[in-house]
Design brief:
By secondary structure, the protein is an alpha/beta fold. 46% of the residues lie in helices and 18% in strands. The chain is built from 13 helices and 8 strands. Helix 9 crosses helix 10 (198-216). The chain has one domain (18-263): P-loop containing nucleotide triphosphate hydrolases (Rossmann fold, 3-Layer(aba) Sandwich), CATH 3.40.50.
């Protein structure tokens, strides 16, 4: 029996995926590395530089962007998944940071297990919505499950956030491996978070780079190192963005360096 067009190989289907060149997916492989905090802060930095910015909480099922921002959204991604809202209708404006937010829905296992066709529709809708922004930051869930892989494939750039912890590095490597196997042309960058010094961050990156180079024949470039800073935890506890509460602290300066590298194409 001849296969219908919908039954074509996954490789053939992946080539037809629409991507957003201005979408940056932030991944980690492992939870607890500061991925969501970084996504929030990077989006805020884009907005402060005059960019029309959108933060999409794509951590389906364990969303917490709204918590970091002190928001209690009446509309979120749950309404989109159920068909009650479009992405445009679900977004809210975070006035203090001057950027838009698409909030997720915490504790909803149904969102984390979206059927493939619904996940594909969500990704396509996001790409079309991204046309109305200069920059879109997509905070992915931890790990390398199907939803994470599917949404990351829609991004023009993927930033993998990791720390000096061996388990964090191992999981970051696993994410890079799976991503490059699925899409060898993917633009993957690395950010080392919560380091004592920039030198420690660069040493940590070298460990990851050597593993990738040896086993994957690919070395994702270092986008930046963010130093460990008590001001980060204080801003999170107060549900106020770091760039608002402590704009001149070390971590804020380091996120600024990441932003410069992105804007300058380094």
């Amino acid at each position: 029996m001849n296969a219908s067009p919908k039954a074509q190989s996954p490789q053939g289907a992946s080539r037809k995926l629409e991507k957003g060149r201005n979408i940056i997916a932030v991944a980690s492989g492992k939870g607890g590395v500061g991925k969501t905090w970084f996504s929030v802060t990077l989006t805020h930095a884009f907005a402060q530089h005059g960019h029309r910015a959108l933060l999409f909480d794509a951590d389906l099922g364990l969303a917490n962007v709204d918590i970091l921002l002190g928001l209690m959204p009446q509309r979120d991604l749950g309404g989109v998944i159920s068909g009650r809202l479009s992405l445009e209708q679900a977004k809210i404006h975070y006035a203090d940071g001057n950027f838009d937010v698409l909030a997720g829905r915490s504790g909803s296992g149904s969102l984390a297990a979206l059927p493939p066709n619904r996940l594909a529709t969500l990704g396509t809708d996001l790409v079309h919505m991204a046309d109305r922004y200069d920059r879109v930051t997509m905070d992915l869930g931890a790990g390398i499950d199907r939803t994470v892989r599917g949404l990351s494939s829609r991004a023009g750039k993927i930033i993998v956030v990791t720390t000096t912890e061996p388990t964090s590095l191992t999981d970051a490597y696993a994410f890079i491996k799976v991503t490059m196997q699925a899409n060898p042309s993917a633009d993957v960058r690395v950010v080392i978070n919560s380091c004592a010094t920039h030198a420690e961050g660069r040493r940590t990156y070298e460990t990851l780079r050597k593993a990738c180079d040896s086993f994957l024949k690919y070395a994702p470039p270092l986008l930046g190192v963010i130093r460990r800073d008590p001001k980060v935890l204080e801003s999170i506890r107060n549900q106020i963005p770091l760039l608002t509460r402590f704009p001149n602290c070390n971590a804020a300066d380091d996120v600024g360096g990441v932003l410069d590298n992105l804007l300058e194409g380094r």
